[in-house]
Amino acid sequence: MEPREGGPTRHPSYEGVWRFTAAAVDVSVPQARHAVRDLLVRQGVPLHDEIMDGLLLIVSELVTNAVRHAALLSPEIAVEVAIGPEWIRVSVEDNHPYRPKALEADWGQTGGRGLLLVREIAQEAGGACDVEHTASGGKIIWAALPLTPKAPGPGAAPQEPVVTSPRTDPSAP
């Protein structure tokens, strides 16, 4: 049923913003991944399997980075999931002031490419990611993905998505 002109716009029942906190310890990585997956299933989010897999990998990478690199100054981290009608955004917040950058692919190293992986997954899906400072001096690292994969047309260059901070209204693009 289509909304009438001038009438209220109906939003899908799965839309919303959820936030939970966890200790900055190793066991929080799988717990966060499972909590996000369970939330998406419980809310009935129509998420394509490929996007779900990428999103859960992003959650694992972001929480792992917070546990490994921020735990000393941030014994607790926050994970936020914001779901709109056509996209999903996950963010991890900690109180460490260091703002990481995605490293280049150096296959000789055994680590240090988590944010690069997050950026690549987001961009490949037609989404985006970024790092922002918080008012308290910490940071939020977020990634936003469409609910369904974006397939660029033949010969078309991928468009840069317009994505804002993870704290915006979930009905906004």
List the topology elements.
Blueprint (H helix, E strand, L loop, with lengths): L15 E8 L4 H16 L5 H22 L5 E8 L3 E8 L19 H12 L2 E6 L5 E8 L27
Antiparallel strand pairs: 1-2, 2-3, 3-5, 4-5
Could you characterize the architecture of this molecule?
With 173 residues, the protein is α+β, with helices and mostly antiparallel strands. The protein is 29% helix and 22% strand. It contains three helices and five strands; from the N terminus they run E-H-H-E-E-H-E-E. It has a five-stranded antiparallel beta sheet, covered by helices on one side. Helix 1 (28-43) packs antiparallel against helix 2 (49-70) and helix 2 (49-70) packs antiparallel against helix 3. The two termini are 22 Å apart. The relative contact order is 0.18. Mean pLDDT is 83; it is low at 156-166 and 168-173.
Query: Would you tell me the structural class of the helices and strands?
Result: alpha+beta
Query: How many whole angstroms does the radius of gyration measure?
Result: 17 Å
What assembly state would you assign to the polypeptide chains in this entry?
single chain
Number of helices: 3
Q: Order of strands across the biggest sheet?
A: 1-2-3-5-4
Beta-sheet strand percentage? 15-25%
Taking the alpha carbons of the first and last residues, their distance comes to 22 Å
Low-confidence stretches: 156-166, 168-173
Number of strands: 5
- Which percent bin holds the helix content? 25-40%
What profile does the largest beta sheet have? Answer: 5 strands, antiparallel
The dominant shape is globular
Overall pLDDT level:
83
Q: Give helix and strand order, one letter per element, not per position.
A: EHHEEHEE
